[in-house]
Amino acid sequence: MSSLSEKANSPNASRVMQSAYSAAYGYATDRVHEFWDRLRGKGRRPVGWLESARNIALSSSLNILLIFIPFAWASHWEIAQWGKDTTFALCFLAIIPLECIFDWGGEQMALYLGKDLGDLLVITLNNARVVILHLLLIPGTAFLVGGYNIRQQTLHPHHTDLNHSLLMVGVLATLLPTAFFAALDRGASAVTAAGTSAASALVNDTTRGEILKMSRGIALMLLTVYIASRIYMHNPPGENNALTVPTDAPAPIHHEEKELLEEEPLVNPWACMLLLALTVALMAVTAEFLVESIDGVRETSNIEEEWFGLILLPIVSFSADGAVAILFFFQSIYNHLTHRQTLAPSMLARGRAIDLSIQFTLWWMPLVVLLGWWTSKPMHLLFDYLEVALLLGSCFLVNYITADSKTNWVEGLIMVVFYFMIALVTWFYPGQPEVAFMLNCEGTVAEALAGGGEGGAEAAASEAAALLARMF
């Protein structure tokens, strides 16, 4: 492995990759033409629509769960007869194959887009999930399963170094409004779980207005940082470096890009784009139905809203990835016992899930704040105290583990165990009603407090929790 790494880091690596590009796209005069030719599949074996459809259908054994989609939708429209528990269970099962199709379609598009843009597409498609899940459980499981029979795995050092800074600034940005709100708190109980109000200068229109202003300013700065980071990563300084693998990247990175150039796709690019668009639509509707059935399930199971939103809902999105990882884990054990050689899929050796958290924190979260500003909805970056503390702790742990761009199965186990520690703590946490209350007030805070009446704040907090569940 060391000789291979030295070879990849030598000056010859650049010439090898350039010759591979020239062999595939020697007719391209610049990067734009090269990208367009690669996207169209020029130089590759053409894949027809019928063959594409067949390969999509056979892409995963989990696709058999797609049969639950019409039943989930029917259960939603007839929820009075089917019940919210049934609707939730059916939507849960229906989302699993859709997540699997997301990953498979993204991997296929990476053949047409290249490694960097392919990873960015997969990250964007999968960014309907919660941040802490992608910081701890998913990469932790990947490191644990993928590294159980090797000493260590390698991450992309260039991306890892920049990701440390991006992840930290995103988490600290969410900390600022929360710290501001906490500094104003002098111990007064502004809105209690019972829905009563007390005289306080904490929860009012002035405070919310100030938090909204600072949230919108922070959102603009975060978007600027994220766009600048994409430009730096996909078009680094130097001549003709756009969308290429750095010459000093580890050997597995060069090998992966070479495989993407040489591997024949199973679906044509236009069918793949149509597949992803259709999957996004199905996922959006099914996830909406699942969220709407949450309250009934939570009430019958006596689960706290915080645990439901932070732990259970994100597990739904992890189901497909988790099934793949677990199946590979047992297959690897079987191959080891029967003395068969098996190669770990490259997806299990990546920290791509961490990139998902970075994109959500630096792009989607600020974008939602600005969209709320545009539509006159009070979206801000004030979060629950405990949630911010958990996010900050997760950030420190991930940055520490990936600091040397190498991981092993023990570090993966540490990440998974810390996630379950969070699950244990949030099981007993009732939430912070005043934060959800200020988020959900469509009018003024004063009107909501005066007109909410008994139980008004509790209902507002419940609706705010549902809104945040849709965001995450």
Structure description:
The chain has 472 residues and is an all-alpha fold. Helix content is 72%, strand content 1%. It is built from 21 helices and two strands. The protein has helices at residues 2-9, 11-25, 31-40, 49-57, 68-77, 79-82, 84-113, 115-125, 131-146, 157-184, 205-234, 251-262, 269-292, 294-301, 305-337, 352-374, 385-401, 409-427, 433-440, 445-452, 456-471; strands at residues 153-154, 406-407. A two-stranded antiparallel sheet has the order 1-2. Helix 9 (131-146) runs antiparallel to helix 16 and helix 15 (305-337) runs parallel beside helix 21 (456-471). The radius of gyration is 24 Å and the shape is globular. Residues 1-11, 187-200, 343-349 and 453-472 have low confidence and may be disordered.
